[in-house]
Write a structure and sequence with these properties.
8-stranded mixed beta sheet; globular; alpha/beta; Rossmann fold; 16 helices; Arc Repressor Mutant, subunit A
C-alpha cells in the first residue's frame, strides 16, 4: 500500500496533507481527528479498513486542519472551513467525479458536500454518522451538562498522562477491544492532534444540525451504523436514513464504533460496501469461524479466539500473518497457540492442523 503524500493550501492559508493509495474508481474519505496519514498504514486498527477501501478504488484521504501532517497552528475551525477543506483537497487532486465516504465526524461534511456538488459525487457512504451534534441532540439539563463534561474529559484524554483519562475515548470507540487495540487508539490520540485542537474541533462537531439539508440530497447513499455504538448512538444513523430519500440503512451487529476484523460484522460491513459498488466480497476475507457440529470435544471446548487462530493455522497462516489478520501481537498469538496445543493434547503445529482440517477448519465458513 505505497502512498504519495502531497500538500495543498486552503483559501485562509492552512496547509493540508492528502494521499492516494490503490487503483480504480476514485473514493475520497473525509478527514477526522483520530487519523494520521503518516501512521494509519502501520496502525493495525485502521490498516484493514484502508486495505479494503482501496481494493477496487483509488482511495484519497487527508488530514483535516489541526491534525496529522496538516498544519496544527490554526486559528479558525468552523463548519464552513471544514467543508471548504474537502473542496480544496479534491480540487488539488484533480478529481472530477468520485465516491465520498464520511466516517463518524466526517458524515455531515460528506452530506453537505454532496448537496452542494451533486454532479461530482457518484456514491455516498456514511458510517457511524450523525446529522445532529451532541449539543443539538442533548436537550435536557443533565444532557447539556454531560456535553460540557465530555469536552473537559476529552482534553484530559489528550493532555494528561493519567491512564484513566487516556482510556476514555479508546474504550468508547472499542468497548470490546483488546488491551493492544486500545493501546493503538491511545497512541493515535497523542500523535493525531493537540488537546487544544481536539476540543476546538469537537466544539464544532457538537453544534452540527443538518436534518433539513440532508432531505435534499439525491445521491445514492449507503448508511452503515453499529447497533450498539457507544460513540454515536444508533438512532443517529437511523435519522440519517429517514431524512435521505436515496439512502439504504444497514445496521451492523457490533458494540464497537470502529468494527474490528475479528467480528462477524466485519464481513457484513464489507459485503454491503462492495455490493453498493457492484462488487462481490473478496474470497480472501476470513470469516470468523463458528462452532462446528460433530467435531472432537477438545476443539468444541476452544474459545472463540482459539478457534479463530486454529482456523487460520489450518489455512497455512504464519504467526505474523495471524497477528496481522486478528490485530493482535505475535507474542499473543504464540500464547494462544500454546494453549491450543494443551487443550488438543498435541505437541506440534502439524498435529494441530491435522485435527483442525478433519473438523473442517481449513475452509472459509
Amino acid at each position: 500500500m505505497a502512498q504519495e503524500i502531497r500538500y495543498c493550501v486552503t483559501q485562509d492559508g492552512v496547509r493540508l496533507a492528502y494521499a492516494k493509495v490503490g487503483q480504480g474508481l476514485p473514493l475520497v474519505k473525509i478527514g477526522t481527528w483520530l487519523t494520521h496519514l503518516g501512521h494509519d498504514l502501520d496502525n493495525p486498527v485502521w490498516r484493514p479498513w484502508l486495505e479494503n477501501l482501496s481494493r477496487y478504488h483509488s482511495l484519497y484521504r487527508y488530514d483535516p486542519r489541526g491534525c496529522g501532517l496538516s498544519d496544527w497552528a490554526v486559528d479558525r475551525f468552523t463548519l464552513e472551513d471544514l467543508v471548504s477543506d474537502l473542496e480544496t483537497v479534491v480540487d488539488a487532486a484533480g478529481l472530477e467525479q468520485f465516491a465520498l465516504m464520511g466516517i463518524s465526524q466526517g458524515s455531515w461534511i460528506a452530506i453537505t458536500y454532496a448537496l452542494r456538488h451533486p454532479e461530482r459525487v457518484s456514491h455516498l457512504i456514511i458510517y457511524g454518522g450523525y446529522l445532529r451534534g451532541m449539543a443539538r441532540r442533548n436537550n435536557t439539563e443533565l444532557e447539556a451538562e454531560e456535553t460540557e463534561v465530555y469536552l473537559r474529559l476529552l482534553k484530559l484524554a489528550w493532555a494528561s498522562e493519567n491512564p484513566t483519562y487516556k482510556q476514555l475515548l479508546s474504550t468508547e470507540l472499542l468497548p470490546e477491544g483488546t488491551p493492544e487495540q486500545l493501546g493503538w487508539i491511545n497512541h493515535l490520540q497523542h500523535i493525531s492532534t493537540s488537546a487544544e485542537n481536539v476540543v476546538k474541533l469537537q466544539q464544532v462537531y457538537n453544534q452540527i444540525y443538518i436534518p433539513e439539508l440532508a432531505t435534499n440530497v439525491r445521491t445514492p447513499t449507503l448508511v452503515l451504523h453499529p447497533k450498539h455504538d457507544a460513540a454515536v448512538p444508533f438512532e443517529e444513523g437511523r435519522i440519517i436514513a429517514v431524512h435521505m430519500a436515496e439512502a439504504r440503512f444497514v445496521p451492523l451487529d457490533s458494540k464497537n464504533h470502529i468494527i474490528l476484523t475479528t467480528e462477524p460484522a466485519w464481513n457484513q460491513l464489507w459485503r454491503e460496501f462492495y455490493h453498493f459498488f457492484g462488487f462481490e466480497l473478496p474470497a480472501d476475507q476470513p470469516e470468523p469461524p463458528q462452532p462446528i457440529a460433530n467435531v472432537p470435544l477438545a476443539i468444541a471446548d476452544l474459545t472463540l479466539r482459539e478457534r479463530q487462530i486454529l482456523h487460520l493455522l489450518a489455512q497455512g497462516y504464519r504467526n505474523d500473518e495471524i497477528a496481522q489478520t486478528l490485530v493482535i501481537t505475535p507474542k499473543t498469538v504464540r500464547n494462544y497457540i500454546s494453549r491450543i496445543y494443551e487443550k488438543l493434547d498435541v505437541t506440534s503445529r502439524g498435529q494441530a492442523i491435522v485435527l483442525a482440517r478433519e473438523a473442517g477448519f481449513d475452509t472459509h465458513q
